[in-house]
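Exercise 7. Given the encoded structure of a 219-residue chain, write a plausible sequence.
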């Protein structure tokens, strides 16, 4: 499944992937090389692809260690610490096996949706929408919060500044002038996300302090 998805993504963005020597690509490689040892996923075949699309502020990591970053994300990251926040979060989804959880959740939801639609003779779209809001989205938000926590600890252990995570999401909050209500989103609102990260910062600072021995002076 991962190989097929990887091939489809490469095909979709063919001609838009920046070369390895491009500054954006070099920065992603540099940050990733520090994060991977803290992830426990060193055995995967990691590959980095930066997509030249200044309109997209996004990044994702598919199972197997394939990393995709859109160039539009780089300015808002504002350096390696901000980029480590994003990549740590995306790698954390793989650490926590969220893709497998989503597949399992889907296998449970589909039969229920078909049964409800059949018994009550309602629109299949309506049934799937209600189940999505009642079941899938809360589960996805839980995964997002888990990835925030794991990613924060990972970046701190890799000697990145954990305070940068708060700063990144504050910048994101300014960019997203019209925020989607949290109950309609698979992601926590930026405000809620920032509050949780601030709660976790004392623990992250301890990890960052301990990482000095490996990486030298911090920040």
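Solution.
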């Amino acid at each position: 499944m991962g190989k097929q998805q990887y091939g489809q993504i490469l095909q979709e963005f063919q001609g838009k992937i920046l070369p390895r020597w491009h500054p954006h690509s070099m920065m992603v490689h540099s940050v990733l090389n520090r994060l991977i040892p803290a992830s426990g996923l060193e055995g995967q075949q990691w590959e980095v692809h930066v997509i030249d699309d200044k309109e997209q502020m996004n990044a994702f990591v598919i199972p197997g260690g394939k990393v995709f970053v859109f160039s539009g994300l780089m300015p808002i990251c504002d350096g390696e610490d901000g980029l480590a926040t994003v990549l740590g979060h995306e790698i954390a989804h793989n650490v926590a096996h969220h893709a497998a959880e989503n597949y399992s959740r889907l296998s449970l939801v589909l039969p229920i949706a078909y049964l409800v639609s059949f018994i009550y003779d309602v629109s299949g779209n309506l049934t799937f929408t209600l189940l999505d809001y009642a079941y899938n989205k809360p589960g996805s938000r839980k995964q997002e919060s888990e990835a925030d926590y794991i990613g924060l600890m990972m970046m701190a252990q890799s000697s990145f500044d954990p305070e940068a995570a708060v700063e990144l999401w504050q910048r994101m909050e300014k960019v997203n002038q019209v925020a989607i209500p949290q109950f309609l989103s698979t992601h926590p609102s930026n405000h809620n996300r920032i509050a949780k990260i601030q709660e976790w910062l004392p623990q992250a600072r301890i990890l960052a302090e301990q990482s000095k021995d490996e990486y030298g002076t911090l920040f």
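Remark. The CA atoms of residues 38 and 154 lie 6 Å apart. Students should compare their own answers with the one above.
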